[in-house]
Amino acid sequence: MIRRTDRLLLREFVESDWPAVLEYQSDPRYLRYYPWTERTPEDVRAFIRMFIDWQREEPRRKYQFAVLLPAENRLIGNCGLRKKTADAWEAEIGYEFAPAWWGQGFATEAAGGLLAFGFEELRLHRIWAYCVAENVASARVLEKIGMRREGRLHENEWMKGRWWDTLLYGILEHEWRAQVR
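Above: the chain's sequence. Below: its structure in token form.
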């Protein structure tokens, strides 16, 4: 499965993607809002294998795409959409990018592509996302793609020896259609 946006190619993961993912997941800037303090080749290979296993699931519930700059065939991050059950009417989206590519609109573009995929192809009614409240850039991405902040969960995420607040965002299919016209 391949999806294209204006500047990006979103494709299924393959085993050979792990070195590019390890490179950006080892960056301290990336690790700031994740539970890990370091990433090993074994960690990242298992991470990629999980996504590849999802591709074989029948019926499929989870889609995780490698995000590439097509002209360079360079993997710069990943994004995904996950339903709890195959017949679910809602799904969660998420994304992560190499810090070298932050601030250039790629996360917004990929996340917008996930909304289109979810509403047009999977015929979902609602798509939601959450982020660590201190990750202002991630919250801004969700707002840019038209998602509405639905709440703040206080100290609901234990990570790196402390409690973190998370923000919950959502968008309904009819709200998305109204903004893309």
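The chain has a mean pLDDT of 96.
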